[in-house]
């Protein structure tokens, strides 16, 4: 097994590991792991894009352009459907530039789909782009503390970001992204509080 294959194997076995940990396990540089990860994501993106294009010509679609899921088991369905809004040109460009897959459109919303989407967002290695969650939340807490004149912590930031999502849910409870993001902020805050 060559170095590239080792990096891929370690990333697949440990999807929540950050670049330094994968690099340490394989015995290579973080930048090498980053390059391999970008290649893998580009390949996954191209495969997913091809699959979606093939599906779109082979499956029936609703008026909104959403795939019909009449064969899905009834216990996994809820009456909450998400409108297909498409991606803005700016978001689409961002996904293509970073070789990152856009979130799959959610058709039938379940507690499992909300949690699995939140899990994919917070366990995907974003350290290269945004830094460690605890460091990021601590930095935000510092800025907010200066602005408010009150000492805030990284945990406070997680809770307050989740509360922002709660306020948005009050306005539009059917917007699934707010439920997903809220679950993600609570998960990050729970981890930070218990480190």
Q: Please, could you describe this protein's structure?
A:
The protein has 195 residues and is mainly alpha-helical. α1 crosses α3, α5 packs across α9 and α7 crosses α8. The longest helix is centred in the N-terminal third of the chain and has 29 residues. The radius of gyration is 19 Å and the shape is globular. 13% of the residues are buried. About 15% of the residues have low confidence.
Overall pLDDT: 75
Dominant shape: globular
**What's the total count of β strands?**
0
Report the span from N to C terminus. Answer: 35 Å
Low-confidence stretches: 58-87
- Look at the structure and give the CATH class of the domain at 1-58: Mainly Alpha
Largest sheet: none
Structural class determined from secondary elements: mainly alpha
SSE order, as H and E?
A: HHHHHHHHH
The portion of residues assigned to helices is 55-70%
Query: What is the subunit organization of this protein?
Result: single chain
Concise overview:
By secondary structure, this protein is mostly helical. The protein is built from nine helices and no strands. It has a domain at 1-58: Arc Repressor Mutant, subunit A (Orthogonal Bundle), CATH 1.10.10.
